[in-house]
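Input.
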Amino acid sequence: MTPFMAELLGTMLLILLGDGVVANVLLNDTKGNNSGWIVITTAWGLAVFVGVVVAGPYSGAHLNPAVTIGLAIAGKFPWASVPIYLIAQMLGAFLGALLVWVMYYDHFQRTNNPGSVLAVFCTGPAIRNFFSNIASEIIGSFVLIFVVFYITGAEITPAKTPIGLGSVGALPVALLVWVIGLALGGTTGYAINPARDLGPRIMHAILPIKSKGTSDWQYAWIPVLGPVIGAAIAAFLYMAVK
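Output.
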C-alpha cells in the first residue's frame, strides 16, 4: 500500500466511524439516539485507533493535515510530501462522510432538525464567539500535536514502521483524542483536524440531504485555521524544549 492510499483509507475509516457515531446519537430513530457526549467522544477515540492501525505501517497514519504540517515544521516529515498527504486526507474525509450518509440514509430522511443533520458532518460552537472558538481549536490541537511528539515509539514517518507495539501502539493516540474530547471538546466539538471538518462539510453541501439547511460556511474557517495554528505552536515549542 502506498502512503497516499494509506492516508486516504485511514482517514476514510476515521470519518466513517467518527461521523457515524454522531449520526447514531443525533439522528431520529437510531438505536443510539440521545446516548450522549461520552458515547461520541469514546467512539471518536476508537475511530482514531482504527485509522492508525490501518495506515500506520504505510504512511505513519497522520490522518490530519495539522499533524502533517506540525511534523513538517518540526523537521520530522519532508515538506515535499505534505501536499500528497493533505490531498489523500481530504479525499478520505469525502469518502467517509459519503459512507455515513449511505449508512444512515433512512434516518437522515426522518430527521427534520437541520442543526442535527449538520452536526453529523462537521463541528459547530456551543456558544458562537469566533475569538473563543478559534482559541479552543488552537488549544485542543496544540495538546494533540505536542503530546504526539512525546508518545514513545510513535514516531510518524512515511516508512513502513509499526507504531510502538504493533497495533496496540495506536492506543496512546486514541486515548489522547478521547481525553481531548472529554476535557476540551465542549466548546466547539473539537475538530482538531482540518480535513475532518472541511471534507464532510463540503459533502454536506453537495449531498441531497433532507432538511439539511446551511453548511455554515461563515464558521468553516475556524476548524481549518485553528488546528494549523495549534500544530505550529506545538512544533515550535517542541523544538525549543526538546
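The chain has ten helices and no strands.
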